[in-house]
Amino acid sequence: MARYVSYRDFDWVLLGFVLLICCLGVMEIHSATMHTKFAGAHVRQVYWVLAGVAAMFVISLVNYQALLEKIHWFYIAGVASLMAVLIFGQKYLGAKRWIKMPGGNHFQPSEWVKLILILAVAKYFADMRQRELSWADFMKAGAIVGVPMLMVLKQPDLGTALTYLPIAAMGVFLGGLQWKQGLAVGLLATVAVAAVFFVPRVHVLKSYQKQRLTSFVDPELDPQGSGYQVEQSKIAVGSGGLWGGKGSQTHGAFLPVPQTDFIFAAFAEEHGFVGALGVLLLYFIVLMRLTQNAQTAPDRAGTFVVMGVVAVLSFHILVNVGMVVGFMPVTGIPLPLMSYGGSSVLFMFLALGMVMNVRMRRFVN
Amino acid sequence: MFGRDEKVSAIRLTAAQYAILGIFLVLAYGLWRLQVMQSDYYSLAAEKNRIRNVPVLAPRGKILDREGRVIVDNYPSFSALLLRDSSRDLAADADLIAQGLHLDPNEVRTRVRRFASMPQYQPIFLKEDITPDELAFIESHRNELPELDTIMVHRRLYPRNGFLAHLIGYVGEVSEDMLNQPQFELYSSGDVVGQSGVERQYNGILMGKNGSRQALVDSHGREVGRLGETDAVPGKQLRLTIDIDLQIAAEEALGDKNGAVVAMDPRTGEILAMVSRPTFDPNSFAVRVSRDEWNKLVTDPDKPLLNKAIQAQLAPGSTFKVIMSVAGWQEHVAQDLHVNCTGGAEFYGRRFGCWVKGGHGPVTLEKAIYQSCDVFFYTLAEKLGIDRIAKYATALGLGQKTGIDLPNEVSGVMPSEEWKIRNFKQKWFAGETISVGIGQGAIAITPVQLLRAISAVSMGGKLVVPHVVNPEGLPQGYIETGHYEEVKNVGIDPEGWNFITDALSRVLLPEGTAPSAHVPGIDIAGKTGSAQVVSLATRARFKNSDDLAQNGWFVGFTPRRNPDIVVCVLFQGGEHGRLAARLATQVIKAYVDKQHRTPQKLVEQPKTDGPKTGGKVDIGALWTVPDSEGDKDGLQAGRFVVNLPKKKMVMAAAAPGMAAQ
Predict the structure, then answer these.
(1) 3-state DSSP call for residue A110?
(2) Which of A9-13, B142-146, B234-238, B363-367 shows the lowest per-residue confidence on average (mean pLDDT)?
(3) Is residue B7 within 8 angstroms of chain A, CB to CB?
């Protein structure tokens, strides 16, 4: 069986586009952090990308089907690590998201739990016996994602918690969601959101989270906080014009964290509409290439794994770029492959490793 | 039921692809909207974000005296600035800012509100002339209060003790009222402009043009680069016609007494000294004046802000008799007028008294002038009638503005038949003319008007325009000084001119009204005057209160022919003109002394030991004496040891409180 697994079947085109995006990211990190205390971040980002590529090759060798067989152990380990964060986590900027690792590195379990969830959801729906989703299946799928999601929400990290949603949504959709179920979930979600914002005694969201969301609706309410950030981001993007400009918003530190969450704004300011549209096109090519891989997957589980990655990546792009252009509230979700940050880069390459894993085994069976 | 190998619905996968396409189209639209449709708006917003206009303040021009000595200078001082582009909650920080800068928090908020309509990148001045500990507060709170900054400005330094204060005036922040006036339309809120005196009149010359520096700043307000700089154009210096030495003499002469002293060169109209009392310290106005201090100055009954030299309107009293004499001479009435003064006379059924109760006996024009006989001038006034008096008084500039280059000069009143009808819709009563004859009644003049009129008399009718700034140093075609050239000639008959000035020169002699003011060796011609503030009867009702005491006047010039200085003194509550005359002669003496000292050095001081500190000096001399026959001059020689005064006369190097240039 192993003789069929070959790097000839590795998706080099996909990797090419992904690395192209990473390159643009590194260049923008370099430009945005010049003359700041973050100077040199682009070099570290290169190391992270290289480490990510290595991890991708490693994970592509492990048979995903074998991984799926042991997924319940991974799931338990993932939930346990989230628990550990809640108990031993490092508090930083008012939230416990990191565990301090030996060697001085910080590890953010919520990122790799995302990967486990993709596999767990894939496993669950691959094993499902009927064509249409029953309410019981629906609930179970919801619980698989819901438990870690609530724990991440508790950290509190609304942004990352939200990224778990598309995994569940994609799984449920491809798993055979019925119209009435979709309608019911939609209604329930509307009611829940309304409750969070308008019923006084429901404290699901922290006040700053609420404020972020309300200030998105009316930036004038909070010019110093996230409303200010969105305004500065819009100014950065808008002043870029068609062909890009000098990047005064980025270099004048008007743009908050231009190397991470707002890297797309920094890029759009320096390279204009043409450059920003080019990056969006690259992401679109990557996503289309991924869905193509999902279609050619050897089994249902493979399709679910790849589509889970597609869901997370699309959601990240939607929320991050949407925030940068002022369509979405500030949630602290980075732009995958471009934003500076080890956890984010490693997650993306591990997820791509899973995709490669599936692709390389498309002729197996 | 289906097997493990059954594929996922292809339709659903395609649907997911279309959903992704939809997401990307929405995002692309978002970019299009910002970067193409609203690109101009956001480019402007980005510009505003990063460019801050930091004013580069232009120093005001110095004010110098006629010899180039410094009267008004600048000194460096720090002002606290509030930068509004660092996106801070200013209302919340106001308390801390106010505490550190010793301000009222509400004042800070009001100020922020007042400047709210101005561009955000323009800083607001919070407090001027901050103390070292306030400066330290700002420096030590750079991180907590990044919106605070300091700027070095040149602040006005005025002479000490209110020296020349009324003439110089003071500067202050341009008020909203002023901004609405056309002459201030080019100024903007926060500009410091002249508020009175020369500072206001010549603001256009003294005030420089502020420059600005376009600084590239980051979101913390730190300068990260410089885009451009417009240099400040410093204000031009202004040379006054004032002579500091003479001004010092005039200030000292008047001392703490209320009144005014003005000295002028009658040939040119150049004002050499101008004092008004009580005075004020313009240095306290250089920074924003506190409300209490302002109220105190404004409500003070002695009106310290009033420049009495040009703004006090008072009866001239007997000094008006000079004008009466000119009118009488020109109308051929006075030359042959003989009056027997018995201490009073009756006109139009009412008795008018002379100031000498026992009377002057037989009086002619000459005696009437130096003895100031009221009865003579009553008679003269009766014979001339009000309109002929008014004709000469008006020709000599009384009852009208002199055109001096100082703001808010008042015109005074010179009554006439026409004036009475115009203002009171009443006919002039001939009886009213009698009081006018001795400078009482409806007549009201300013010291500078009287000075100008007497100056014209002393010059044979040449009526100059008094001015305090030397037009030579001003820019070409500076309009405001054009009228200096408009010298009118009243045309006084030379014989009458000589007669009147000769009579005036006897005022300070033993037979005159002010012998005590006589200065040996100086030929001063002048006229005293004591003018009632209220009628004698009213004053008696108020138990001869000092507030209602008569004003003493003196106006005089030297020398008698072709004078080079004319001085007018108003001594309010001075009771008699001779006291005013004493003050005037102090000024005249200082002028003559200085003239003797400065231009020609007749005797070179021995360079050897001693003379600087005074003491005995050995000098040789040659002189001639007529011998006994009377026609041959005998040359004699001798050697003398003379005592030089210990204290050397020193001329001022600059106005009090100023460093010499």
Answers:
(1) helix
(2) B142-146
(3) yes
